[in-house]
Structures are given as C-alpha cells and as structure tokens.
Amino acid sequence: MKGICILGATGSIGVSTLDVVGRHPHLYKVIALTANTNIDALYEQCLEHHPDYAVVVDENKARIFKDKLQNSSIPDIQVLAGPQALEYVATLDTVDSVMAAIVGAAGLLPSLAAAKAGKIILLANKEALVMSGAIFMQAVTESGAQLLPIDSEHNAIFQCMPVGYIAGMQAKQARRILLTASGGPFREMPLDQMASVTPDQAVAHPNWDMGRKISVDSATMMNKGLEMIEACLLFNMQPDQIQVVIHLQSVIHSMVDYVDGTVLAQMGNPDMRIPIAHSLAWPERFDSGAEPLDIFAVRRMDFEEPSLERFPCLRLAYEAIAAGGIMPTVLNAANEIAVEAFLNENVRFTDIPIIIERCMKKFVVTEAGSLEIILETDQQARLVSRQIIEDLNN
C-alpha cells in the first residue's frame, strides 16, 4: 500500500481524491489530511478514512477540532496546527504520494517541501509552480521526485506526450501545445455588462465544479494564463509554443501537436476524478468512478480563439512569463488579492485585470533566484495590490 497525504482535503480536489482513493482501499493508506478552517468536513473525512494525522492550519480551529476528536470514536488521530505542520506531514517517511491541492500561494511551501523530500507529487496547485518556477523544478530534479500534473489540461498534455515522458523534459518531437479552455460563463456577455457581474454569477461555471477562487479565475481566464505559465515549466516549452483554444464542450482537455502533423488529444467527461485516478495509478490505470464518455451524446465539438479584449488577464499572463524573473510571482499575488476583493464585493469584476496590470507596472523585473526573493516579492505585491484597491475605492 502507498501512503498518501492530501494537502487541502476539504476542497473540491481533496474531496474527489478521497472518492477515488476510497474505491481502491487495498492500494492506498491515508496518512494525513489537512484543512484550513473547515473542521466539520475534515471531521467527517477522518471518520471515514482514519488518517494518522490531521492538520488544521487555523490554530483556534485546531483546538476545537482536537477536542471534538477526543470525544469521538477516533481519538488516536494526531492533530497538528499551523502552516509549518503542512510541511511536516508532506515529508513524513510513511508518505509516498502528496496531493498538493491547497489553492493559491499558501500551497507553495508544503508542495516545495514534498518535492525536496523526493515524494510523488500530484500537483493540483498551479500557483506554487507559477510562483517558484525553476526553483520548484530544480527541487524535483535534484531529489528524484516524480511530478504528475492534476489540472485536467496538464494531465491531458502529459497523457499525450511520448511513452516514458517525465515532467520537465523537452519532447523535441512536440512542436506545440493546444491548451483548451471552456471560455467560462461570460464568453458571450456584452462587454459593457461585465462590470456589473456578481460573485455568484462568476462562480457558476458551465462545465466544472470548482472552488470559488478557481471559478473566478476561469471567468477571467486567468486560470488559463496561469496554466500556460505552468505548462512552459512542466513541458519545457516557450510561451509561443502554447496556444489557448476555447472548446465549449470541455470534452477535449488539451492536445499536443507533433512535428509530423499528428495532433493527439485526450478526451473525457469534465470530471476531476479522471486526472486524479490517472495520476494515482500511473503508470497503470484503474477505475475513477467517472461516467464513460458518450461520444454520440456529444455530437459536435466547437473551437474558437479567445479574445484578449474580453479576457485581458490572459494577455497579462503572457506578458508576465515573457518578462520572466519575479513577474509571474507578482501576477499571481495581485490576482489572488484582486479575486478576494471581488468575492468580498469590494471591487468590480472588470477591476480584476486593472488591479493586476497596475501592480505589475510597480515592479522592476529582477531574477527570482531564491525562495526568499519569491516570498518577499509575493508579500510586496499583495501590499501594493491592496493599496491599488484602496485607491480605486476612493
């Protein structure tokens, strides 16, 4: 049996991971589950999966959770608190695989710790790779860790790569990646109406069931910008080799165009259990619980180019990776603050790219040569973004 640690167990990816793991109890032992504040969901997961450790990042919530466990049928689970505990459980000797599913910059340090410890990393946190770039990939190479992408698009690309492909390699026969996107809920909304978009409208994704932050990123297409940056690192390609394609049905999850004219595509229903099961079973396959794709029900597949006028966040992501250095870190931090402000109804939907662009203009591109530089840049960009939001509201 393989030991698994799930960072972000109560989020949508964590829940789907436990669903897949529960279908194969003879293959996986849940060693650790982590949550930020959702102790009720974590408690139910502990009752079902009996991990050795449970981490609650919020220390006040952790105390409540520990008391709750003491009065339950599973009092022997060791409860840890604080962000440092995430790194601890991600590097335990009993852990073989780490599902890195914490959303945002908060997932960077435990994911990087798992990479340095040589674990099998199931990477669902795109922000960690966007922020730390070459440092993360270097840690994977030096430790001998295995990096398996969970995002449906990157998992699809991985599946379409040559036999024996390892993340970070350059597949010389592959000349282009076609990175698919659903287009989100506002693909056809008149531009003059987008300023009035509400958080509830933005999180109502037409095809996928995701968390609120990721759903807003999908609506702005920043998620595709972050995925483009991540794909450059995972597959050792240049930005001009990655083309974003809107595919309304979300049946093709991405494609790889080869030098001989062959285009390989990975297809399936829009269910995150498919890429999760692929990575858990890799290099084999097993049941994910997802419904088989009925190609006759799909009937047709449509494709179109994204409009950078409608989706300026995608343009900003290409500008950030072209600038290099610390700029992807700035982009990510500004986006997280802008999305948080929008979800709290402090700024308009159309303010999100304005905040990001103004923040990026405040920084001079320097080399992201160390983790300390990256973390300092992340904090500075958050402060700058909050000031920009304050200025917008005055």
UniProtKB/TrEMBL annotation:
Annotated 1-deoxy-D-xylulose 5-phosphate reductoisomerase C-terminal domain residues = 147-235
Q: Which reaction does it catalyse?
A: 2-C-methyl-D-erythritol 4-phosphate + NADP(+) = 1-deoxy-D-xylulose 5-phosphate + NADPH + H(+)
UniProt key word Glycoprotein: no
Give the Enzyme Commission number: 1.1.1.267
Residues that coordinate or bind Mn(2+):
151, 153, 227
Q: Which residues form the 1-deoxy-D-xylulose 5-phosphate reductoisomerase N-terminal domain?
A: 4-133
Cofactor(s) the record lists:
Co(2+); Mg(2+); Mn(2+)
The entry's NADPH-binding residues are 10-13, 38, 125, 127, 211
Q: Report residues binding 1-deoxy-D-xylulose 5-phosphate.
A: 126, 152-153, 182, 205, 218, 223-224, 227
The record, for Pfam families, names: DXP_redisom_C, DXP_reductoisom, DXPR_C
User: Which keywords appear in this protein's UniProt record, sorted alphabetically?
Assistant: Isoprene biosynthesis, Magnesium, Manganese, Metal-binding, NADP, Oxidoreductase
DXP reductoisomerase C-terminal domain residues are: 267-382
Q: Give one GO molecular function term.
A: NADPH binding
Query: What is its pathway?
Result: Isoprenoid biosynthesis; isopentenyl diphosphate biosynthesis via DXP pathway; isopentenyl diphosphate from 1-deoxy-D-xylulose 5-phosphate: step 1/6
GO biological process per UniProt: isopentenyl diphosphate biosynthetic process, methylerythritol 4-phosphate pathway involved in terpenoid biosynthetic process
So what does this one do?
Catalyzes the NADPH-dependent rearrangement and reduction of 1-deoxy-D-xylulose-5-phosphate (DXP) to 2-C-methyl-D-erythritol 4-phosphate (MEP).
Q: What is this protein called?
A: 1-deoxy-D-xylulose 5-phosphate reductoisomerase
Question: Per the UniProt entry, what species is this protein from, by scientific name?
Answer: Candidatus Methylobacter favarea
